[in-house]
């Protein structure tokens, strides 16, 4: 891949487009909100308060760049009013209970948020005439994981061992049912709403402080000066920088916004995963993170593996490559360097975090404008 030249002009596609984004106080939602606002979109975020302290929403001052609405996606009255009043053209649905281990502690809350919440969002879309495109974000863990060596395709069976994974498989089924029942592809020219789902997972980047996630656990350990306890070092995941799938979500929405019948072919499910070489074991990530961080950072094996988690998982993203001309742009080594840059800046000069986050978005956007050799 060629290196980007100097700063290139940002796309004008999103300028002044009205976007309703659920989950903007979360990790992925926060990065998406910043990028959309950076491109000139008018964004209304709808979400609960951030779950952690610190968090990306506060440190990157995301509330400064959008219309910040606090609400629960299960609250139909508030959600409907917030969406209809804003008159969005695009809906990105990212609000969720996103943690496997938390789903074991609160399975009912997980299903309520991830399944019923998704149904509430899509039901609100039914009553919001302005909406033309919906991207409902689930996860790579929505597949029935057989722990095999082959990457999963969008046509593979859905499933899920744990409550979180199965709740996201259910969210996929809910999205498909609403599409078939209320927004059928063959009648897109009549109802005008194209609905798609997006599957990605194990995203990394600055601003994630969730519990029981590898990168936040490493950062907390590095900052405290204590060895980080790592579970399942041999588990392989499709690691990627958070901007990679977010770029995919935006590309998908752009195609869904095209006139019928063009948009109809994109109203389906899409995987957004890294290059095959970047599906790495947990130990590989831990080793490189400790090397990049320096200052005596280290990790040790945690003998308590906790509840069941998948040992091997990869995605086949050929549909996204073919239909959306989307492809991973950052090698994993570079993504880790950007991540360390972000947390180091937060540690030393926290007031510079919003500027640095915008800088990383601009650098990544420049990469998307360069054609591969």
Can you characterise this structure?
By secondary structure, this protein is α/β, with parallel strands linked by helices. 41% of the residues lie in helices and 13% in strands. The chain contains 13 helices and 13 strands. It has a seven-stranded parallel sheet with strand order 3-2-1-4-5-6-11, sandwiched between helices. The chain has a two-stranded parallel ribbon with strand order 7-10. The protein is globular and about 60 Å long.
Short description:
By secondary structure, this protein is of the alpha/beta class.
Amount of helix: 40-55%
What is the count of DSSP helices, taking H or I runs of 4+ residues? 13
| Alpha-carbon distance between the two ends | 6 Å
Would you count the extended β strands for me?
Answer: 13
Taken as a percent bin, the fraction of beta residues is 5-15%
Question: Which outline best applies?
Answer: globular
Mean pLDDT: 92
Low-pLDDT residue spans? 1-9
Structural class: alpha/beta
Helices and strands, in order, run as EHEHEHEHHEHHEEHEEEHEEHEHHH
Q: Strand count, sense and closure of the main sheet?
A: 7 strands, parallel
Radius of gyration: 20 Å
